[in-house]
From TrEMBL, chain A:
Keywords of this entry: Lyase, Organic radical, Transferase
One Pfam family in the UniProt entry: PFL-like
Stretches assigned to the PFL domain: 24-688
CC annotations in GO: cytosol
Residues bearing PTM Glycine radical: G792
UniProt cross-references to NCBIfam families, sorted A to Z: PFL2-3 (TIGR01774)
Tagged with keyword Transcription: no
Domain Glycine radical, residue spans: 695-816
Species assigned in the record: Liquorilactobacillus uvarum DSM 19971
Alphabetized CDD domains for the sequence: PFL2_DhaB_BssA
SUPFAM superfamilies: PFL-like glycyl radical enzymes
Protein name: Formate C-acetyltransferase
An example molecular function term from Gene Ontology annotations: transferase activity
UniProtKB/TrEMBL annotation, chain B:
PANTHER family for the chain: PYRUVATE FORMATE-LYASE 2-ACTIVATING ENZYME, PYRUVATE FORMATE-LYASE-ACTIVATING ENZYME
Keyword vocabulary terms for this entry: 4Fe-4S, Iron, Iron-sulfur, Metal-binding, Oxidoreductase, S-adenosyl-L-methionine, Transferase
Top-level taxon in the UniProt lineage: Bacteria
Domain called Radical SAM core: residue spans: 24-259
Family to which this protein belongs: Belongs to the organic radical-activating enzymes family.
Molecular function as annotated in GO: 4 iron, 4 sulfur cluster binding; metal ion binding; oxidoreductase activity; transferase activity
Organism expressing this protein natively: Liquorilactobacillus uvarum DSM 19971
NCBIfam families assigned to the protein according to its UniProt record, in alphabetical order: PFLE_PFLC
Cofactor: [4Fe-4S] cluster
The protein, known as: Formate acetyltransferase activating enzyme
Length: 816, 268
């Protein structure tokens, strides 16, 4: 008997790897979106300016509601010929609206350079430039960004200006990093919120100023609900008009159905599957017209959509194919949403990602496997649509079936960088420990990329607060608290590296300094939140987040049930490898002196003999990612002061209603590793100045030489339980390896071990051949839909800057 | 100094590679321990650096650097590495595989290591060519949960010509293994000009029926080892021989099957 295991397709059923194809209609629709060029769209900016001028005298909640109302009433709307869902964000697909209330200076400054960017190019017409210049004066000293800057205490401002702490996203955008309660929206309609507000309004005692303030929020809530209803009606009218002009019978009926549905939802409860999908889409869309915050996520789409699907299947109203078509329609619609960021911010989010996450799988509130027919259809839709958005996450738990896991691996093989996995086995217990109710903890979803929150109940930015650059911090610490580049004294001087006698001495000053930086990051974050709360409440987003209505408060005033936030700590692997090299080569083996090393860093390893120093640093010190305790422990220890310190600082909602009100750590660097690498001089791990840092908590590329099990082991030594904001691990695998079914099964086993036994938090796979990427760099036209995983999200490869492309190619394994 | 210590046969083993998450050497997730040193000299050997039972230098011209192949390691050093992936073996029903070179060439040390591995309840497999005295083989295979056993030639003369040793011991050990009821997998590396004729297939079939082998695996000849010969500064006789692919072995497979043996092709 021969015992070699053979790939047993039978075990997993026949469906594995079979995802079906886009319908011709959706194929055409997708093509039209891929063809669409991204332009900067001034329409929303103009309408917003009009509304701000008109309603200047109103209370801030009312102003914000009226702005949304004015935009929804007047913006260009259209229904494309190949869509079954209506709703558009800007005057053309893929055009990016401008949100002047959050920030306007960079828009004006960059008007002439949008088209000349090295990546994330946006086009703009001369007319649009003119219109934007016209409204610009109104926004001078009148944006979130201006108010945020003005509120930074001077010392904190220094950290921000030098780029040591990044918060460009926080200071230029509104609510995001959130999933609202879509389940409630489709099951009860916006009308249910309206009813509740009206009831509560009646009970207000307006002699109490606190209650009077609630009144404004309630009034604002009613305005936005009505505005969304009116917006839907506009589409219904348009669909009817188009139906009247359409001769072809099938399309005529489709348009009539669109009209019927939009007269009903999202204001009223949805009864059919298609109504539900339309209601979700329209709501999701309006949230991204209200605010430019990214990572607006769908939450657990398979859980709340499945009952509608199964009901329609039973009643014969729909087929699986039709349901999948609508899902692909939703995926393509999701990609039409676009965001133009300042060039500085773009470096942190290369590929203009919106991080609109869909989460599937996981467990039900009572701990059973939650995979349902809709989970499978969503996998089908994601593969069929083959787009970088939405961002798909699968919630792993030990009871997830092999069949479903194998199907996920088949999706991974398609090279989409999806799905990413989040692990129930660590996230749920961590949540419960932090005070989240059990049934809510079991109902968490991914938000954006790796981070997690309870949809519909959580305030914004469960992660995505400020970025702290760890390797650069180390350089400042080594330099006696002075930024080596600007020469500014940022931190107390605990002595210069060249005069240190031991590793312990270095680490002692690291610990004290890191705590100081952590405090500065808190001050910066609070300043942003203060300005947001005072001037930029997002009303619809708050209305749809429990318990804002009950408390009569916006999210930023403490309306959400849960409110924990986290920032992002960047360059974990670089810090680990730097510390290991210093400890071993400088202090233990005295192979180089501290002076020699410091000089080499200043010279960017260009001086005489410094290349051999660099080679020694790279080759003769242990590296993070290889399951070597001595180096892994160094990063665990060096990270801990941040974890301890950040836990001390409450957010601006503490004690105002939400459970929590605290902060925790998180490592989802998104593409900030490139941007923050830019501002970082050479580091003791042998990295050259200005080159990218390692992403998330992934090992530095090409230095994890002992295979995936060793990477998982190293990563799992981090204090994952405390890094609730997410531990991002990006792994690569050559497509060749996954050709055999047997190896796919081994990948499943690998994942299971990482999650079941090592309690990893997250992992995602980039499965694309290096050759393909190189070819795409040279022939972008041939590869316009080539997708790569950047860090926590996927993006079109050809849209990225050459530098980011090179970084990804570097990180991609060569096939045999 | 270290080399001298290594000559103590059970204290240290000469190992030339340790590969974690190895995909093709048995069930589940495995760590493969590569033993350096082999009594045979197969002309097609894809791991020429594994043949000599001593450390040696390999020079990579492209990277312009040389590395030393082979390191003496103790059981506890190896166990430390093996145990790092225990969670993965447990979750995947995987374990450890001994490979080479020829593990039997360092049987006393290998047995010591096998004892330690089995004491931890870890699944253990080996890849062997079976070229060892029966008493050695008999003691060794009992530690194995699964044996991959290479059978290169049915004909003793041709065997000697192609590998430098006769197949007498090999066939004897194979018989013992098959009769023992232990799990095994017989593999034939199919090499042009050595054992690739239809007649070879027929004769293999006969042989297997006699011994009682009911299933085999074919490993088509490949050239993955080519570069290593240059790096070792050695001649490679099969330099210009074309590689075989799974589809080239269909006829061969058919002949074997006609003899009543089940055949799987482990192609690439
Ligand atoms: S038995 Fe294996 S290791 Fe030894 S020479 Fe032959 S092919 Fe090489």
């Amino acid at each position: 008997m021969c015992t070699t295991i053979t790939a047993d397709q039978e075990v997993f059923g026949q469906n594995v790897g079979n995802f079906g194809k886009l319908t011709p209609k959706m194929h055409n629709y997708r093509e039209s979106i891929l063809d669409a060029k991204p332009y900067v769209d001034p329409e929303r900016a103009i309408l917003t300016t009009e509304a701000y001028k008109k309603y200047q005298d109103q209370q801030v909640d009312i102003i914000r509601a009226r702005v949304l109302e004015h935009v929804l009433e007047n913006m260009t709307i259209y229904i494309e010929k190949d869509t079954l869902l209506a709703g558009n964000q800007a005057s053309h697909n893929r055009w990016a609206p401008v949100f002047p209330e959050y920030s306007m200076n960079w828009v004006i400054d960059e008007l002439d350079t949008f088209e000349k960017r090295s990546g994330d190019v946006f086009y703009i017409t001369e007319e649009a430039k003119k219109e934007l210049r016209e409204i610009a004066p109104f926004w001078k000293h009148n944006t979130l960004e201006d108010r945020g800057y003005a509120s930074f205490p001077p010392q904190s401002r220094l950290f921000y200006d030098l780029g040591l702490i990044g918060a460009d996203g926080n200071i230029t955008s509104g609510d995001g990093h959130i999933a609202v309660d879509y389940e409630h929206v489709i099951n009860n309609g916006l009308v249910s919120y309206e009813k509740r507000i009206k009831e509560l309004m009646k009970q207000l005692d307006l002699t109490d100023i606190k209650q009077q303030k609630k009144l404004y929020f309630y009034q604002a809530g009613l305005i936005v609900i009505n505005a969304v209803r009116g917006f839907a009606e506009r589409y219904a009218d348009l669909a009817e008009e188009q139906a009247a002009q359409t001769i072809e019978k099938k399309r005529k009926n489709e348009l009539r159905e669109i009209a019927r549905i939009l007269r009903k939802v999202p204001y009223q409860a949805s009864s059919t599957y298609q109504e539900a999908v339309q209601a979700i889409w329209l709501t999701h869309l309006v949230l991204q017209i209200e605010s430019n915050g990214h990572s607006v996520s769908y939450g657990r789409l398979d859980q709340y959509l499945d009952p509608f699907y199964e009901r329609d299947i039973v009643s014969g109203r729909i087929t699986a194919e039709k349901a999948t078509e609508l899902l692909t329609n939703l995926c393509i619609k999701t990609l039409t949403i676009n965001k133009v960021r300042s060039w500085a911010h773009t470096e942190f989010s290369a590929g203009s990602p919106l991080y609109q996450n869909i989460t599937i799988g996981g467990q039900t509130k009572d701990g059973r496997d939650a995979v349902n027919p809709m989970s499978y259809l969503i996998l089908n839709a994601i593969v069929q649509a083959h787009l970088p958005q939405p961002n798909l996450t699968v919630r792993y738990h030990h009871g997830l079936s092999d069949h479903f896991m194998r199907q996920c691996v088949e999706v991974i093989k398609k090279g989409l960088g999806m799905p990413a996995f989040n692990n129930d086995e660590i996230i749920i217990p961590s949540f419960i420990k932090r005070g989240i109710k059990k049934e809510d903890a079991y109902n968490y979803s991914a938000i954006g990329c790796v981070e997690t929150a309870v949809p519909g109940k959580w305030g914004y930015r469960c992660t995505g607060m400020s970025f702290v650059n760890f390797p650069r911090t180390l350089l400042i610490v080594m330099n006696g608290g002075k930024d080596p580049e600007s020469g500014k004294q940022l931190l107390p001087n605990y002595g210069h590296f060249t005069r240190m006698k031991s590793y312990a001495e270095l680490i002692a000053s690291w610990n004290k300094s890191l705590r100081e930086i952590t405090r500065q990051s808190v001050i910066i974050e609070n300043s942003c939140d203060l300005a947001l709360e005072q001037n930029y409440p997002d009303i619809l987003c708050s209305v749809l987040t429990e318990d804002c209505i009950g408390r009569g408060k916006t999210i930023k005033e403490g309306g959400a049930i849960y409110d924990f936030i986290s920032g992002l700590q960047v360059g974990i692997a670089n810090l680990a490898d730097s510390l290991a090299a210093i400890k071993k080569l400088v202090f233990e083996e005295h192979r180089i002196t501290a002076k020699q090393l410091w000089q080499a860093l200043q010279d960017n390893y260009q001086g005489e003999g410094q290349e051999s120093i660099r080679q020694m640093l790279i080759n003769e010190a242990p590296k993070y990612g290889n399951d070597i305790d001595e180096v892994d422990q160094l990063i665990v220890d060096a990270y801990q002061p941040y974890i301890d310190e950040i836990a001390k600082y409450k957010n601006t909602r503490y004690g105002r209603g939400p459970i929590g009100g605290f902060r925790y750590a998180g490592t989802s660097s998104i593409s900030a590793n490139v941007g923050q690498g830019h501002s970082t001089l050479a580091t003791p791990d042998g990295r050259f100045a200005r080159t990218p840092l390692a992403e998330g908590c992934s090992p530095e590329h090409a230095l994890d030489v002992d295979g995936p099990t060793a990477v998982f082991k190293s990563v799992s030594k981090l204090n994952t339980k405390a890094i609730t904001g997410g531990v991002l691990l990006n792994q690569k695998m050559s497509p060749q390896i996954l050709r055999s079914a047997e190896n796919c099964e081994k990948l499943v086993m690998l994942l299971r071990t990482f999650f079941n036994r090592l309690h990893g938090y997250h992992v995602q796979y980039n499965v694309v051949a290096r050759e393909t990427l190189v070819d795409a760099q040279n022939n972008p036209d041939k590869h316009r839909d080539l997708i790569v995983r950047v860090a926590g999200y996927s993006a079109f490869f050809v849209g990225l800057s050459k530098e980011t492309q090179d970084d990804i190619i570097e990180r991609t394994e060569q096939t045999v | 100094m270290t080399i001298k210590q290594g000559t103590d046969k059970t204290r240290k083993g000469l190992i030339f590679n340790i590969q974690k998450f190895s995909l093709n050497d048995g069930p589940g997730i495995r760590t493969v321990i590569f033993f350096k040193g082999c009594p045979l000299r197969c002309a097609w050997c894809a791991n020429p650096e594994s043949q000599r039972k001593k450390t040696e230098k390999m020079f990579d011209e492209v990277k312009n650097c040389s590395t030393i192949v082979g390191k003496y390691k103790t059981v506890s050093e190896l166990m430390k590495i093996i145990m790092q992936d225990k969670d993965f073996y447990d979750e995947s029903n995987g374990g450890v595989t001994f490979s080479g070179g020829e593990v039997l060439f360092q049987a006393p040390f290998a047995i010591k290591l096998a004892e330690a591995i089995k004491a931890r309840g870890i699944h253990l497999a080996c890849e062997t060519t079976g070229f060892a005295k029966p008493e050695v083989f008999n003691e060794f295979y009992k530690y194995m949960d699964l044996v991959y056993f290479d059978c290169k030639q049915w004909n003793p003369v041709l065997h000697k010509k192609g590998t430098g040793g006769t197949n007498e011991l090999i066939l004897k050990n194979m018989q013992t293994l098959v009769a023992s009821g232990r799990k095994y997998c017989i593999r034939i590396p199919v090499i042009p000009h050595f054992n690739y004729t239809n007649e070879d297939a027929k004769q293999f079939g006969k042989l297997f029926r006699k011994i009682g082998v009911t299933e085999v695996e074919l490993l088509p000849f490949h050239q993955f080892g080519l570069k290593k010969y240059t790096e070792l500064g050695r001649e490679y006789e099969l330099k210009n021989v074309a590689q075989l692919h799974a589809e080239d072995l269909l006829e061969y497979q058919k002949r074997l099957q006609e003899a009543g043996v089940k055949v799987k092709i482990n192609g690439w």
